[in-house]
Design goal:
The protein has a domain of about 140 residues. It has 22 helices and 9 strands.
């Protein structure tokens, strides 16, 4: 929802509001472009977002195909020049394994349906690694270096984590040259193009914040995950001692249950999540070894699930089969060295997220690179039996990938076909019905509302073009409903003073006192009039 809000700020040329050091700009720019061209009604707004996501999916698919083609070509050149005494995966296996793996990661790990830039980052990672492999294969030439710098710059605009990762890619680019003196000028050219693309946004952010920054997402996620600073409504030392004092916290206007007001000065449907960096200005991150180790060990479970379950289990079994039969032992590390263009970025990406936050959609492209690097290093001594074994393993893995992706897609395909043939059931779009119901009841675009519940998921507010300016968080809503009449009146009066026109909530408890609350259309949402 925040990306849509940022996109609309760009559309309205509200540059100060649009500039955001938590949400990177590229995805919002793409949404803004789509909104400007299609001009959707509020009902179709999220459908346009999904259309943009599909276009991004096609872009990422093209990038992974480029990576697979470059991997295959580089592999072939290595075989002809250095490794003629070995048997490798057949050329067709790279596309046969890579495309189904990409589809599985894109649909069930990256999740195309949600509104995030992670698939853009995946595409940029694949494109950059393909360019690095092309450099290794063809040698030094200026166009490749320029394209690498452009790709990394665009990647940074998609997500701030690509700023430090861009330095990793540039390091690999320099090492890949072989001759550091000759390669340095090409790497500097790539760095120059990266800076040209990244610098304007970095300078604009730094000027707005009054300090150098290329984005605050990493800092805030570290504070939340490691220093245990609350993810919303941080009030200072009372919440997380030793982590600084907020320069402008949300305003706590009622103690129990806590009611927070945050209508100004941040824009967006839900200002708390529109620009978290504003509300957390003043937070101090501290390295806490014990918490850091505990966090990394906790993230190990996510990596274990990604590498030992589902499709990855089949890939691991296939690789181990080839490795054990090859009897290469520690020599596999030497075999892996020529493919550092995939291996080093893979390890860097997996490592950087392990420090703070691991979600499958964050690390999906690095999982792809990891498997590509491992299978690139797999080789058996040349013999007829080895060729048959490698072909059998490759065929089995391709069939496994295709069957898994096909089976997993069956329900989604059925629903898509049903939607195309019978039309969508508009009545099932509850957030849209809440938005339309509020407008029909007299709550108009631009007006302020309060919410009891999980405001970050209140898509109805965006569709109704209203702003949530006060809330009781979901974890404390039960206290509101359990309160006696006098306390409830005081809380309602507090909400009235925030400037909210109505209070909205979902699913009041069956036995609660809901006098004065009106149901919004035939939804599970209710509204209490304040104005």
């Amino acid at each position: 929802m925040s990306y849509i809000d940022v996109a609309e700020a760009y559309l309205h040329q509200d540059w100060s509001t649009a500039l955001n050091s938590y949400w990177s700009p590229l995805y919002s720019w793409l949404l803004a472009l789509a909104f400007a061209i299609i001009k959707p009604s509020p009902y179709w707004k999220f459908s346009v977002l999904h259309l943009v996501n599909f276009a991004i999916y096609l872009f990422a698919l093209g990038c992974v195909d480029f990576l697979l083609q470059e991997t295959s070509k580089f592999h072939r050149s290595r075989e002809e020049a250095h490794d003629q005494g070995f048997v490798f995966l057949p050329q067709w296996a790279w596309t046969g394994l890579g495309i189904p793996l990409f589809i599985w990661l894109a649909l069930y790990v990256n999740t195309v349906a949600i509104g995030t830039p992670d698939l853009i980052v995946a595409g940029i990672v694949y494109l950059s690694c393909g360019l690095l492999l092309r450099r290794r294969r063809r040698g030094l030439y200026w166009l490749n270096s320029a394209l690498l710098g452009i790709a990394l710059g665009v990647g940074y605009l998609a997500k701030a984590v690509m700023f430090p990762l861009a330095l990793v890619f540039l390091f690999v680019d320099l090492v890949a040259a072989g001759n550091l003196r000759r390669g340095l000028s090409h790497t500097l050219l790539a760095f120059l193009f990266f800076i040209v693309i990244a610098a304007p946004f970095v300078l604009a952010l730094s000027q707005k914040k009054g300090r150098f920054t290329f984005g605050d997402a990493g800092k805030l996620n570290y504070a939340w995950a490691i220093n245990k600073v609350p993810r919303s409504h941080w009030q200072g030392n009372e919440d997380a001692p030793g982590n600084g004092v907020p320069k402008h916290a949300t305003r706590k206007v009622f103690d129990s249950p806590p009611i927070y007001e945050f209508g100004d000065p941040v824009g967006g449907t839900y200002p708390v999540w529109y620009d978290p960096s504003y509300w957390y200005e003043g937070v101090v991150t501290r390295f806490a070894p014990s918490r850091q180790i505990k966090a990394i060990l906790g993230k190990a479970a996510a990596y274990y699930e990604l590498f030992f379950f589902n499709v990855s289990f089949g890939l691991l079994t296939g690789f181990l089969t080839l490795y054990l039969v090859s009897r290469r032992k520690w020599r596999v590390l030497r075999d892996l060295a020529p493919y550092s263009s995939s291996a080093i970025p893979a390890l860097a990406g997996l490592g950087i997220y392990s420090v703070v936050a691991v979600e499958a959609r964050y690390i999906a492209p690095f999982v792809m690179l990891f498997w590509l690097a491992l299978f690139s290093a797999a080789r058996l001594p040349n013999s007829l039996e080895a060729k048959r074994l490698v072909s059998a393993v490759a065929t089995s893995l391709v069939l496994l990938m295709v069957i898994n992706v096909t089976a997993s897609s069956k329900s989604e395909a059925f629903l898509t076909i049903k939607s195309l043939t019978t039309g969508e059931n508009v009545s099932s779009h509850e957030h849209w019905r809440v938005a339309r119901g509020l407008n029909q009841m007299g709550v108009y675009p631009g007006e302020r509302v309060a919410f009891l519940g999980q405001s970050a998921q209140a898509y109805w507010a965006n569709l109704a073009s209203v702003r949530i300016v006060a809330e009781i968080e979901d974890k404390n809503v039960g206290i509101f409903w359990a309160a006696d009449e006098s306390l409830k009146i005081r809380m309602i009066e507090t909400f009235r003073r925030t400037g909210a026109k109505v209070i909205v909530t979902q699913n009041p408890p069956p036995n609660s006192d809901a006098i004065g609350w009106k149901r919004i259309a035939d939804t599970s949402y209710y509204v209490y009039w304040l104005g």
